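Quick one before lunch.
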Amino acid sequence: MTQASRVEEREYLRTPTESTDGARQLAGRRHVLDLDDFTREEIGAVMENTRAMKEVLQRDIKKVPALRGKTIITLFYEPSTRTRVSFEQAGKILSADVISVTGGGSSVEKGESLYNTARTIQAMDADLIVIRHPQSGAPHFLAGRLDISIINAGDGTHAHPTQALVDIFTMESHLGPIEGLKVVIVGDLLYSRVARSNLWGLTKMGAQVVLCGPPTLIPSDFQNGHRKEVGHPFTNVRIETNVERALDGADVVMALRLQLERQRAGHLPSLREYSRMYGINSKRLQLAKPNVLVMHPGPMNEGVEIDSEVAHGARSVIEEQVTNGVAVRMALLYSLTAPTLHATPDTVESQQLSKPGPKPRPDITSRRVYLK
Ligand code: CP
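Model of the phosphoric acid mono(formamide)ester complex:
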């Protein structure tokens, strides 16, 4: 099937009913914590809203009043360039007030707990917190205890749902429907929150996912070739420790960052060895389909998990992933804080302030919470 006909088919596959169901689910959503609780239709709705946001980004003046009067806080306890800047840019383009808080320079340095920091932000009447935290589960922890919307911008080794949505959008915009695509994710699967969220998203969209890496970097629940539980969405995910076999006929190759800061447990003999065995280079890329997409969530260790000539070569869409990151995050901020079903360039032109108010505040006085 040609690339053009796949893209046309995408429009055909999303029927008006699917589209409306997904838009309803997305409009009713309060938090984005991972993709495990998204349906295929809802992911489709994010893709549709992202296309509307891309249209806004192509204008000479990239500014719409959709979120005027809303306050978004980015709360980052770990370093970030792409995710933090794209959320900030997304909020500003939609006319929200965006305030950045990082661990350094805030009262976190004086020992304030995550919970108290987040409650302080809530007390200032913020509408939404975008959080990155080194502990898996930190965004869920806040979502269960605060009245405001939470978006997970990466928690520990658990999830990075907005990156996975960026990746799915980028794949769809080049290759059409995700259904049936062979997507090979290569690298540090043990520590990768990007891989985990992509697994949820891609399996829901019907991709044929292959995870490839050294046995020491494959999570124990995926050892022995695949997950065993009958009916689990990851049962059909294939594990391959030989990168050449994995890449054969691939539509998409996603290299994962070798997380040097987490590699103290002796999982690898050396980076050179890893690169020799698993690095994505132009020779290996020839095993994939001619129109293969090369992806990487960033930041990259060029020369380790991916060669520079591949990272910046003709098949690479790595910079496009970054560009799409702004549109996807605009779509998510809009969906969580504005009331309309479908985002269109017209609806984002109007100020949307009538989303139903916050849920009643849970009684937390009896809980003793010390997550830092
Ligand atoms: N992909 C990603 O999360 O990059 P940053 O760490 O720069 O946000």
